[in-house]
């Protein structure tokens, strides 16, 4: 399943909107499980980083302006509720100040939850570079008055041409998420622009499925996906990277990161075991100190909850791959 998310959707996670950051987490999980492929034109990535600070500044200004400043007539004094409200007002101001201080630190360090998750998404996505050929196509598009976008801007035209060029023909079509009216119909902004819809159908021989919000996409296509906090999400992504690790060097890096976690769910442990069984970039370096220590702790140290069939295959492959090797007894 091919997916495109417009810049305004990424930026919405810094604004006062109804979208929940969990939606970004759901997206990362779905990509790592290979259920969809996210395409990010370089134009969208650049546009996001260009606009991030402007959007944050606007949202932070509104947050700073919020005050819990009730006024009371003299007749309220002496009542317990009056004292309680005064106390709550003071606590609000204190916590509000603490929140702003911590936000400012994370904004400067680019470590907001949205920052971390979006950087992860860009790392998992298929990037479409901005080539001179794409720029010429976008210019021609704008000069001939074709949607999307403004008459003096190439941004939307570049993104659209990038998608037309890079995304292969697929019977499932393209899932397109954007809140930008440049992509919607002038008659009904909940519908995709009819000209662009027809162009996509002619060029790709498939449908384009349009959503105004990321949450609407997930409600429609992945209603049962499990929500994870950032801590669990990072583990899931690392485990998925271990399964697909293309080199010994990458495997060492992933195992080093996974080793910083003290606990894994049963499902996560079994996914790690499967990576050790099927990915020879892991299996062939089991005698290395860091890899063997990780295996001893998290696989042999949790043998009672692991799939016995995969565990048996893993032990046999260890014996075949590395000789001699000192094994920990595994009872079946």
What key phrases describe this protein's structure?
disordered C terminus, 2 domains, 15 helices, 5-stranded parallel beta sheet, 5 strands, alpha/beta, 332 residues, Rossmann fold
What does the model show?
The protein has about 325 residues and is an alpha/beta fold. The chain folds into two domains: about 1-60 and about 120-220, Rossmann fold (3-Layer(aba) Sandwich); about 230-320, no CATH class. The chain is about 60% helix and about 5% strand. The protein is built from 15 helices and five strands. The chain has a five-stranded parallel beta sheet, with helices on both faces. It is flat, with a radius of gyration of 26 Å. It starts with a strand and ends in an 11-residue tail after the last helix. Mean pLDDT is about 90; it is low at about 325-330.
């Amino acid at each position: 399943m091919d997916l495109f998310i417009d810049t305004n959707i990424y930026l919405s996670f810094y604004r006062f909107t109804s979208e929940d950051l969990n939606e970004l987490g759901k997206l990362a999980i779905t990509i790592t499980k290979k259920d969809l492929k996210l395409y990010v034109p370089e134009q969208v990535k650049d546009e996001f980083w260009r606009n991030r600070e402007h959007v944050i500044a606007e949202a932070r200004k509104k947050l700073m302006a919020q005050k819990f400043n009730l006024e009371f007539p003299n007749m309220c004094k002496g009542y317990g509720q009056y004292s309680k409200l005064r106390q709550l007002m003071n606590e609000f101001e204190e916590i509000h100040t603490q929140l702003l201080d911590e936000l400012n630190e994370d904004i400067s360090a680019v470590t907001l939850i949205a920052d971390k998750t979006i950087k992860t998404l860009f790392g998992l996505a298929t990037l479409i570079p901005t080539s001179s050929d794409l720029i010429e196509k976008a210019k021609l598009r704008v000069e001939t008055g074709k949607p999307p976008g403004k008459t003096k801007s190439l941004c939307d035209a570049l993104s659209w041409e990038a998608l037309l060029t890079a995304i292969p023909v697929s019977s499932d079509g393209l899932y397109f998420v954007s809140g930008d009216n440049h992509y919607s119909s002038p008659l009904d902004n909940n519908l995709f622009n009819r000209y662009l819809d027809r162009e996509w159908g002619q060029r790709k021989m498939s449908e384009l499925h349009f959503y105004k919000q990321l949450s609407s996409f997930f409600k429609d296509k992945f209603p049962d996906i499990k929500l994870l906090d950032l801590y669990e999400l990072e583990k899931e992504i690392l485990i998925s990277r271990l399964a697909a690790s293309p080199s010994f060097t990458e495997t060492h890096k992933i195992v080093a990161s996974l080793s910083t976690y003290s606990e894994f769910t049963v499902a996560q442990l079994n996914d790690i075991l499967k990576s050790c069984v099927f990915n020879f970039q892991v299996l062939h370096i089991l005698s290395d100190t860091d890899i063997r220590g990780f295996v001893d702790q998290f696989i042999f140290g949790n043998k009672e909850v692991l799939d016995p069939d995969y565990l048996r295959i893993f032990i046999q492959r260890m014996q075949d791959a590395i000789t001699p090797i000192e094994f920990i007894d595994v009872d079946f």
